[in-house]
Structure formats: C-alpha cells, structure tokens
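Sanity check

After download, print the first record. It should look like this:
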Amino acid sequence: MSNPSVTSADIGRRIKERREYLGVTQSDIAQVLDVSRVNVSKIESGQPISAESLGSVAKLLRVSVGYFYGEGEDTDAGEAEIIQQYRAMPKSLRPIAVAVVKAVHDAGADPAK
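Expected structure tokens:
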C-alpha cells in the first residue's frame, strides 16, 4: 500500500481535498484524532501522520487508506463517492443503483459516439 514516492505533503493535500469535498472541517478531524485543529492544519501542510491516525481520517472521509497514497488516482471524488455509497448499501438495492446509473448514462449518451 505504501508508495515510496508519496510524501507527507501529498498525503496532507489529499486529506484536505477530500475533507473540503465532503464539507468536513478541520475541527471534525481534530475531534476524531483527539488533537487540536492547528495539528490538523499541520498535517494538511505536510506534517507526518501516524498509520493509526490516517486510518481514522480515512474512515471519517469515507475512503480507503490507499486513497491517500494515490491508489485509484484515476477515480475522481464523484466516482469515489458513488463507489462508497454502492458498497455501503444493502446488496438487495445494488441492482437498482446500477439501473439508475445506466439510465442516467443513457440519457446523456451521445448517439454519434
């Protein structure tokens, strides 16, 4: 999972981007980690974060720890949210979700492509 080319600054940037996308505050993360908001700001600016704390942040931000290391990098935040919601829903509802996504795709599909 650990990508040696990923720096603490990269991880901090990804935390901040995901946090802002979800509307989570630094104070929310601080509460989960039992640290000050200033410490969260430092983490987002590149201060190293422990594996345990990163796991807690990942859970709050509804991503895998691998997300912070660039896994699934070709997946944007919207795709990640759809995947997360799909995985969290009861299996009995998944066919309905797939049908809705297909219908939305088909409604916007360009027949010339």
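If your output differs, re-run the checksum step. Summary of this record's structure: The chain is about 60% helix and 0% strand.
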